[in-house]
Amino acid sequence: MADVLSQGEIDSLLSALSTGEMDADELKKEETEKKIKTYDFKRALRFSKDQIRSLSRIHENFARLLTTYFSAQLRTFVQISVASVDQLPYDEFIRSIPKMTLLNVFEAYPLEGRLLMEVNPNIGYAMMDRLLGGKGTSINKVDNLTEIETKIMTQLFQSMLETFQSAWESVIELDPNMEDIEVNPQFLQMVSPNETVVVISLSTTIGETTGMINICLPHVVLEEILPKLSVHQWMQTKKKDRDEHEVEQLEHTVKAAPLTVQAVLGNSEISIEEFLQLNSGDVIELDQSIEDSLLVKTGGEPKYYGQPGQWKKNMAVQITDEIKEGDTNE
């Protein structure tokens, strides 16, 4: 789209044309010349700006969910946010990350292919130190992880994938599962070197330790769901489906909540002295006649009127009327 000129720029242009500083014929000649735009086939832009914006929104939600999860699990200050979303060749991404790092290879059914989450060793060890009761200090020894450390890291990253699943559920129901942990990116060849990938970089702070978490999503893996990343479809259809699902889930949860129901036979006031002298067999007179309806409370609030009775040899209360707002005798 052509640049929009301000009113001041328009006035300056007209002034230059009127004084002869600029030649209108020369401007027309420049416009008719063929314009050439350089295109690098090794850096093919296979994701549209619309899709990049959708991926950015998904992972902003992912960053918020991770911040909440790790704040509770690690019991320390955690701040995670999206730093950048770029598309570049896979080979360029591999060359941009450290030679020794934490590479989490995972699958996300029903997507076909493997995805990658690269975690800076400083961040990974700070997380593990906090989980083991430490202060969250980071010691980079990624080249010789012990079996126990590898197991802890695997469980930690699997929990991150559960959050990843929640962030993506507005677009597609994924079932991510850890496949392997690698430390040397040179030994990891998920796709061809020239394959376009989207790299979402998350700026991460754990306590006093900072680093990056990079998520690598190959185009060949996301290709079948790219239409779903359209803002129009995502905001219209998926948002509606998501809202309906959330309402249904909320209704199910509320209906299953326990609720205390009380039938009040009546009230009575006695002195402390009379209370202390009560014995078995004494009768307390209530302020309600046996012919009056009982007040039925739900959750401590007056809700119905009822009458006492019996149901299959059990004491019961039959609801006779609903209390309207402002209709209670209390």
TrEMBL record:
<dbReference type="InterPro" id="IPR028976">
    <property type="entry name" value="CheC-like_sf"/>
</dbReference>
<dbReference type="GO" id="GO:0050918">
    <property type="term" value="P:positive chemotaxis"/>
</dbReference>
<keyword id="KW-0145">Chemotaxis</keyword>
<protein>
    <recommendedName>
        <fullName>Flagellar motor switch protein FliM</fullName>
    </recommendedName>
</protein>
<keyword id="KW-0282">Flagellum</keyword>
<dbReference type="GO" id="GO:0009425">
    <property type="term" value="C:bacterial-type flagellum basal body"/>
</dbReference>
<dbReference type="InterPro" id="IPR001689">
    <property type="entry name" value="Flag_FliM"/>
</dbReference>
<keyword id="KW-0975">Bacterial flagellum</keyword>
<keyword id="KW-0969">Cilium</keyword>
<keyword id="KW-0283">Flagellar rotation</keyword>
<feature type="domain" description="Flagellar motor switch protein FliN-like C-terminal">
    <location>
        <begin position="254"/>
        <end position="323"/>
    </location>
</feature>
<dbReference type="GO" id="GO:0005886">
    <property type="term" value="C:plasma membrane"/>
</dbReference>
<dbReference type="InterPro" id="IPR036429">
    <property type="entry name" value="SpoA-like_sf"/>
</dbReference>
<dbReference type="GO" id="GO:0003774">
    <property type="term" value="F:cytoskeletal motor activity"/>
</dbReference>
<dbReference type="GO" id="GO:0071978">
    <property type="term" value="P:bacterial-type flagellum-dependent swarming motility"/>
</dbReference>
<dbReference type="InterPro" id="IPR001543">
    <property type="entry name" value="FliN-like_C"/>
</dbReference>
<keyword id="KW-0472">Membrane</keyword>
<dbReference type="Pfam" id="PF02154">
    <property type="entry name" value="FliM"/>
</dbReference>
<dbReference type="Pfam" id="PF01052">
    <property type="entry name" value="FliMN_C"/>
</dbReference>
<comment type="similarity">
    <text>Belongs to the FliM family.</text>
</comment>
<keyword id="KW-1003">Cell membrane</keyword>
<keyword id="KW-0966">Cell projection</keyword>
